[in-house]
Design goal:
The complex is a heterodimer of chains A (422) and B (198). Chain A has helices spanning 12-25, 38-41, 45-48, 135-138, 168-172, 185-192, 217-222, 387-394, and strands at 72-73, 84-87, 106-107, 120-125, 131-134, 144-151, 175-184, 200-205, 215-216, 225-230, 233-234, 244-246, 259-265, 280-281, 287-289, 297-302, 314-323, 331-335, 343-344, 346-348, 357-365, 370-377, 407-410, 416-421. Chain A has 422 residues and is of the alpha+beta class. By secondary structure, chain B is an alpha+beta fold. A two-stranded antiparallel ribbon of chain B has the order 2-3. The chains are: A alpha+beta (422), B alpha+beta (198). The interface between A and B is large, with 101 and 87 residues. Strand 15 of chain A pairs parallel with strand 4 of chain B, so a sheet runs across the interface.
Amino acid sequence: MSDTPKPRSSSRRTFLRGAAVAGGAAAFGGAARAGPDPAITELQPWMQTLGDGVDARPYGLPSRYEADVVRKDVPWLTADPVSSVNFTPLHELDGIITPNGLCFERHHSGVAEIDPAQHRLMINGLVDTPLVFTMDDILRFPRENRVYFLECAANTGMEWRGSQLNGCQFTHGMIHNLQYTGVPLRLLLEEAGVKTNGTWILPEGADAAAMTRSVPMEKALDDCLVAFKMNGEALRPEQGYPLRLVVPGWEGNMWVKWLRRIEVGDKPWQHREETSKYTDLLPDGEARRFTWAMDAKSVITNPSPQAPLTHGPGRTVLTGIAWSGRGTIPRVDVTLDGGMNWQQARMSGPSFDKSMHRFYFDFDWDGRPLLLQSRAHDSTGYVQPTKDALRAIRGEKSIYHNNGIQTWAVNEKGVAENVEIS
Amino acid sequence: APDAGFGLGRPATPEEIAAWDIDIRPDGQGLPVGSGDVATGEEIYSQQCSACHGTFGEGVGRWPVLAGGEGSLGSRDPVKTVGSYWPFLSTVFDYVHRAMPFGNAQSLTDDEVYAVTAYILNLNFLVEDDFVLSNETFAEVEMPNAGGFFMDDRPEAELPQFSGDACMTDCKASVEITMRAAVLDVTPDEGSADDEEL
C-alpha cells in the first residue's frame, strides 16, 4: 500500500527531531501565524470525496494514523515468543478502560484457539457432586459486570536494579483494565457443593501449559468471577477465550485463561507457578510465597519517554494511572522536582474497587527540566513507596511486585527519560 | 445433581476426572503407580530435553536452568534451579508431566516422567546414579531448599511502614539523577539505528 502512513513516533530520533521543531515553534505559541493555514484554506480530500460505506468495516479498526498504538515486545526478555509477554501502550491511552486489542499478553505455551462448542469446565475434588459445564450451561447462571485491573506480577520487574527500559509501555505495560462479564465463581462452586474441608481451589487452563495456581477458598467465594466477556464482547483468544478466571486485585498469573477445571482441595498444591515462579527472593536467600495482592502503584503516562512534550513551555497536561489490589485510589500526588515538593493531582473518571484510576495535573511548564513522579494513596491508607524504600526491605532480586515510584526526567526540549534519583 | 443451585451442568464421570485431574501435591496425593531410574531418565532427557535445558541442566540460551546454583540464593546473582530453589519434588513430576516437553506436552508416560524426574534429581546431585524413583520412593527424596519459603509477610513487614501521612513540601534539600535508562540503551524501537523494527 503506497499510502501506508509512517508511524508517528517510532524512534527516539523522531522524538528528538519533533521536540526540537516544536521547541522552536513554541516561541510563537498562541501568537498569530505568518499566513493563512492551508489545513483550512486548501480543500482536503476528505472534504470532497466519498468515504467508505457502512459495509466496508464489519469489525472496525483504529484510524491508520494510530498505527503506532500497538502492543510491543522485548525480544531479549525471554527465550522465545511463545512463553513470553508483550506490553500495553499506556502512553497512548486515556481514561481507565484498555481497548481489547491492546491488552498486554502473557502466555506460557502460546495462544490456545478453542472451539467453544468443545470447551468444558469441570469442577472436581472435595465437592458433593463433581460437575461438567458446557459454555451453554455457564451462560445460564446469573451474571455480574465488574471493572478490574489485571497486572502481571512481573510488571516493572526489569527495573529492580535501576532504570533499564525507556518508556512506560515497557516499564509498566504488563497491565490492562477491563469490564468483565461473568458468573461469580461462588455460584459454580455451590452448584457442585463444596465439602467442609474444601479450603483451596486449583484452577487449571486448557492450553498446553495447563496453568495451575492454588487459590484460598475465602478468595474464591468472595469476588472471583468466571468471565466470558471483556468490555462487552467475547474474550479475545489471547485473553482466554472462551473462559477465564478473574481474581480481583491479585497477581495476573492467577487469572487462569482458557479455564477448563477447578479442583477443590484441603491444601495448596505448590505447583510450578507458585514455587519456582511467583515467589519473591529476599536478600538473605529466603523467599516469600503466596504474595497474591498487587500493592498500590501509579505511573505518569504523559509525558513519558515515548510521549515527550512537543508543544514547548506553557499549558501542559500531565496524566497517568493508579491502581491498588487492596481497594480504590482516592488520591494521587505529583511532583515536578523529584519529590522535594508534591501537589495533589485531580482524579477523573469512575473509581472502582481494584480498578485502574485516571489522574491529571494541569500546569504551566516554565520550560525548565522536570523530575516527574506520581505517588498513589489507596483506600487502606497505604502510600506508594519509593523504589529505594522497597529495596531496603526486599533487595534487588525479588523479580515480582515492584510498585516503587517511577521517575521521568524531562529536559528543556521536552524529551523524557527513565531515571533513578537520589 | 445437588439439591441446591440451579440444576445446571451434569455429573463428571470417573473417566473424565481421571483424564484431566493429573495434579500432584507435596504429600504425594495424585501420584500414579509407576517408576523410572536415572539411566532411563538420562536417555529420555538427552532426546527430549537437552536441546533447550542443556546436557547437564545448565540451560541453552535463555531456556531455564534445571541444575546447579547450590548456595547462590543469598548472592547478588542467584541461580534458581530444581536443586537450589524448588521446595517440593512433587512440583517437578507435576510440571514435567503437565507441560513438558515444551511444544509436546503430556506426551510422556507416567514411568517416563518418573525417570526424567530421577535424572533431574541426579543432575542436581540429590540422588545416586542407581536411584529408582517411584510412588514408593518419592517421599525419601529431600529437597535442599524445602525450608526456604515463608508466607507473604507484607501485612506486617511493609504495610504499616508504608501507610500514613506523606510529606508534601520541602521533603528533601536536593535531588540528583543517579541512573539513566538511555545509558543502557536496551529498549526496542527506542534505541540505536541497528535495532530491529518491532
